[in-house]
């Protein structure tokens, strides 16, 4: 299959591009490399040293004989995007290319506006490009479990059957996102659903939970193929941060009481979920939603599991509760459904002590690169 991976230089996109290429698909990466520029803006870095995108794909070709094409450019430049569609004629368009940090979107007005413009308008351009150039192309869009928030009822996959005043309907599940970033995913959802309805586009929205881990079989083949790993208070996510904090002897930063519960998955499952979606395309005009996660944990649970794994490696890790920089519920019900991907063949990699120890060892390998001042959160929601 001819597959475009937009955002293919990022944390989820790079391993996905390699995995799909390994499986024999014709993969083309589209990325404007903005994530590398944001590292400069934040005076931060990836824990792992990452090669340039060109070096990465050259090494992949050298090791496997497989070609991954690269287009460096922005989804918000429609002439550029049109050219990519005309040249590559994608059968699937995997869309990772958005600003994905909630704290980054909450820094100030400029960062909120940038995030919403970049994400919402970039996605709208992708919808128009599919309509104009490849109406049969399957859009596989990365959404987020955070679109739903934490309602006091079970979270269904995209839709919920409602009975109201004696009448029934199946309606989009209510959205209660927790940041200007998470809101962009809700806006994207609405735009995609509408485009499917009016133009007959086929789309799958992958409402992904928080991704942990670093490596896949492919990224491990050579240091030049290494994936990026974020740890700072802006781009680092809960479990990866706890592992890295433990590796450098920093207290694990549980925000508030730590009762916040979220859906999680291993990066190894991210790549497989995208493959499953590509192999089982949505129907023409269908807007399909998969909840892409494998397990749910509270933040406190994750810190405790990390502490235990660290102890097995003779590392003394401490958990500290710090004032929550976000405005969010710390004590709530959380039960989300995730049957669609499992029914299509996903075999989850669960969060075991072995997985945590492997992550700790990976963090230890590069711990000298960590800029300690970047670890504590500085962005607040207020
Ligand atoms: P990332 O920041 O590491 O990668 C995103 C990539 O997209 C970067 O390489 C960036 O340069 C590129 N990009 C951004 N805007 C672009 C634009 N306008 N044009 C072209 N390229 C652009 O993020 P990630 O962690 O790999 O996340 C990928 C996607 O998955 C995002 O949409 C994110 O919202 C979603 N997601 C991520 C997680 C997670 O835990 N990392 C969880 C759920 C959903
Ligand atoms: N948290 C801590 N301590 C930390 C970091 C985070 O307690 O050091 C808490 C947060 O307060 C929050 C939870 O952990 O309650 C998750 O935060 P996070 O930074 O790990 O994840 P989030 O901001 O939700 O965003 C990440 C990705 C985003 C993706 C989302 C999936 O950056 O791209 O959309 O996970 S989800 O959470 O399902 O919406």
Automatic annotation (TrEMBL):
Residues 3-291 form the NAD-dependent epimerase/dehydratase domain. CDD domains: SQD1_like_SDR_e. InterPro entries: Epimerase_deHydtase (IPR001509), NAD(P)-bd_dom_sf (IPR036291). Pfam families: Epimerase (PF01370). It comes from the Bacteria. PANTHER family: DTDP-D-GLUCOSE 4,6-DEHYDRATASE-RELATED. Belongs to the NAD(P)-dependent epimerase/dehydratase family. This is NAD-dependent epimerase/dehydratase family protein. The lineage of its organism: Bacteria, Bacillati, Bacillota, Bacilli, Bacillales.
